[in-house]
């Protein structure tokens, strides 16, 4: 686990241009959430569910990132900013995944989930190298394939093939006296795919 936590620290230094070194990276709020989760998950899998949930609750209060102790996170997962990220109990996140703020990897709701067989998956599986943009929402037992990009504001409730891009609509500009038109410049298209 220490090796994995060291990789987590390295990823923050590598991917966050505002961080100037390992010491500063250690103060990254999402790193606190991720490290807390790694400990909580280990406790959870060893049957110490209450202790795991208490640690997860503390991490949520301190970082605004909610990761259920039952969720499985791969190596080198990077949560940029962290605020309002939610990852559900049966979620599996692959290696080298990037999540921006306000990403939800959740279930569709108790009205559907209570009808599932005991132990059935309720949350997404996110493949390796996936990027989930700001406020992206992935709901239910869907699979997001390796290398996919889920753009900012996108809602996903169906499987996404590997390498795909799922983009929310871009802004519509309405100037006085002119017909509305979609922004078609490269920055509008990219902004929906990224998270900045």
Question: What does it look like?
Answer:
Helices cover 32% and strands 17% of the residues. It is an alpha/beta fold. It has one domain: UDP N-Acetylglucosamine Acyltransferase, domain 1 (3 Solenoid). A 5-stranded parallel beta sheet has the order 1-4-7-10-13. Strands 3-6-9-12-14 form a 5-stranded parallel beta sheet. Helix 1 packs antiparallel against helix 3 and helix 3 packs antiparallel against helix 4. The longest helix is centred in the N-terminal third of the chain and has 17 residues. It is globular, with a radius of gyration of 18 Å. The two termini are 31 Å apart. The relative contact order is 0.10. The C terminus is likely disordered.
Q: Helices and strands: which structural class? A: alpha/beta
Give the SSE string.
HHHHEEEEEEEHEEEEEEEEEH
Count of DSSP helices? 6
Q: Give me the side-by-side strand order of the main sheet.
A: 1-4-7-10-13
Name the helicity range: 25-40%
CATH superfamily: Hexapeptide repeat proteins
Distance between the termini: 31 Å
* Number of beta-strand segments: 16
**Shape call:** globular
The share of residues in extended strands comes to 15-25%
CATH class: Mainly Beta
As a whole number of angstroms, the C-alpha radius of gyration is: 18 Å
